[in-house]
TrEMBL record:
Gene3D superfamilies to which the protein is assigned, alphabetical: Flagellar protein FliS
Source organism phylogeny: Bacteria, Bacillati, Bacillota, Clostridia, Lachnospirales
Protein name in the entry: Flagellar protein FliS
GO cellular component, one term: cytosol
Location(s), subcellular: Cytoplasm, Cytosol
GO BP of this protein: bacterial-type flagellum assembly; bacterial-type flagellum-dependent cell motility
Family the entry assigns: Belongs to the FliS family.
Keyword terms of this UniProt record: Bacterial flagellum biogenesis, Cell projection, Chaperone, Cilium, Cytoplasm, Flagellum
Cross-referenced InterPro entries: FliS (IPR003713), FliS_sf (IPR036584)
Main location: cytoplasm
């Protein structure tokens, strides 16, 4: 990636809303899990470990950034704990636990889609309505 592309990417990220950044974070975790699955199929254990490590890092970040004042955050924390635990089992079991990776991708995809929908609703509620002249 050249300097112009890096600068464009950086500017794009800086202009994203919180909802868009959250969706991007989920996309990164999903992409890492898919890479891990492909690497495991190819028996490339180094890339498998690297991809799992990245996915785990993203999940830990999502967990750490939860606002625990919100009731939903407790449920999300338990879900992120489950995902982290399951990733550990996959890492230890490799091929014996490979069937877990698509399930984790599905969980993260559902969360991503939910946050995307919520982000769109929140964005729509903040759009000023057209003023009407009465009288």
């Amino acid at each position: 990636m050249n300097d112009y592309q890096k600068k464009y990417l950086e500017q794009s990220i800086m202009q994203m809303s919180q909802g868009e950044l959250l969706v991007l974070t989920f996309d990164e975790a999903i992409k890492s899990l898919k890479k891990a699955n492909l690497a495991l199929e190819d028996k490339n254990y180094e890339k498998f470990e690297e991809a799992l490590k990245k996915a785990n890092k993203v999940i830990r970040y999502l967990h750490q950034t939860l606002d625990m004042e919100q009731p939903l955050s407790r449920d999300l924390a338990r879900l992120y704990d489950f995902i982290t635990f399951d990733l550990g089992l996959v890492q230890a079991g490799r091929e014996r636990r490979q069937e877990e990776l698509p399930k984790l991708v599905d969980i993260l995809s559902d969360l991503r889609d939910g946050f995307l929908g919520a982000s769109k609703i929140a964005r729509d509620t903040h759009i000023p309505k057209e003023a009407k002249i009465v009288g």
